[in-house]
Amino acid sequence: MVLSTTNLKDTDIMTALGISDHRHSYICSNEHKKLNIWSYRKPTIYNENDSLSDAEFQGQYSEIARGIYCGISMGTNNGRLKELLECTFTYHPPTGGNADPFRVGDFRGYDTAAVPTPTGNIVSPINYGSREQGIVVEFSYNPNNTTGVNLKRFFESGYSNLSGIAENIDNCYLCIIVANPNRTQYAYKALTNWDTKTITPIKHNGGYVAHWFTSLLESDCPALFNGKSNSIYHASLFLVSTLTPQDQYSPKTLSQWTAQAYDSTANTPQGCIGVPLALNIPVTMYNVIEEAGKPENKAVITTGMTANASGFTIAWTKNKDTYSSVYVNIEAGGYPYGSYSINRTLAVSQSNGTWFFDWNSLHIDTSYKNGTLITVNVRIYPNSSTNEFNRIWEATYTTTWNYSLDTGPV
Questions:
Q1: What is the average pLDDT value for the chain, to the nearest integer?
Q2: Helix, strand or coil for residue 56?
């Protein structure tokens, strides 16, 4: 429901919010907690008694400078990099008074179903030690979003008055910042366009890029990994107008991984803003190059995963617990085709070897369209009891599906 921009009545607002109290202080302060914070038009902190202009719904400059855009904490410019890892998208409604009045007129054009633009998703788990699928990110951008919080307005209106900000959000780069579990270290880097395998702006070749990735090798940021697989890290996505900020207090480059102590005073680069719904996201990190362990960190099997035109291979190189066989669960699939799970009891020697699964056995075939992201989740147990605390090893492999009728998937 989008409220009218003319002849708006209190009862219209009350119906949209699902409340019965008609007090303006109650309606505008969000005491009822019913407000859709992602609507662009909503009660906004602004020292103005009359109706706000469209640009003024972005908020006063004093609010924007504190990382509050459209009334929502967004972890933007003029803050510390670590604030991108602590953002909670808190809504800051008006509090009343001469300097911060309640205006029911702010509900003109309010959309109960509004969503933000852009949005992002950090695919969990992230794999420490993977050259191409260390981190996989999904990114969505709707340029026609007129009723929701759309960062395009923020970048292009000039109202933000932030030096160095891009005039066009299309020219911005998508970046990620990751903090270790105890938040003593974080690292950040620009993401790579999945199609071109290069770092590009979010709009490339006439369209907004939906899939991104980056390597996460041991040599990239060794201080980030805590040495324990299956740990919960936190990550955030942000947009930045340049990969080489000139500000002496900002990162020198975003094209490669940079690690810093969590209490670092490093500023966010100029023209930097967090991606809605993609800040302070908990993600599981697995170590795919070190020996994975049981809960007591006892090394069992070192393994890796590869794919080719014929199928999918799991390689193991060590077996310290002298298992003669292990129980392997594999779940494979790709959006929007769903997933398929198989279980196998497989022999394992004391040295090295491989297990191979052809694509048909994983129910991946010509029905999958070229470009589909195929994700294979592998879990290894000592026996058919799949209690997570007995799990020997777990990791995820992601590849892009391309199928030729002559050669099969490549």
A1: 80
A2: helix
What does the block give as tokens for 7?
Answer: 């002849």
Q: Rounded CA gap, 14 and 26, in Å?
A: 10
Q: What is the pLDDT of residue 322?
A: 53
Residue 206 is classified by DSSP as T
* Fold for the domain defined by 303-409: Immunoglobulin-like (2.60.40)
DSSP 350: S
- H or E segment to which residue 358 belongs: strand 353-358
Res 294: pLDDT = 34
How far apart are alpha carbons 191 and 200 in whole angstroms? 8
**Residue 107: helix, strand or coil by DSSP?**
helix
Give the strand order in the sheet containing 353-358: 303-307, 311-316, 353-358
Collapsing DSSP to helix, strand or coil, 176 comes out as strand
Distance CA 114, CA 137 (A): 23
**Distance (Å, whole) CA 174 – CA 73:** 19
Q: Is residue 137 scored above 60 in pLDDT? A: yes
Residue linked to tokens 């880097």: 189
Could you write out the three-class secondary structure of 109-152?
Answer: CCECCCCCECEEEEECCEEECEEEEEEEEEEECCCCCCCECEHH
Give the residue among 21, 31, 7, 32 at the shortest CA–CA distance from 107.
7
- Cβ–Cβ contacts within 10 Å for residue 286, how many? 20
- pLDDT tens, 69-96? 899 887 655 567 788 888 878 899 999 9
Give the H or E element holding residue 25: helix 24-28
Question: What region does 356 belong to: left with phi over 0, alpha with psi -120 to 50, or beta?
Answer: beta
3-class SS at 85?
Answer: helix
Q: Model-level pTM? A: 0.68
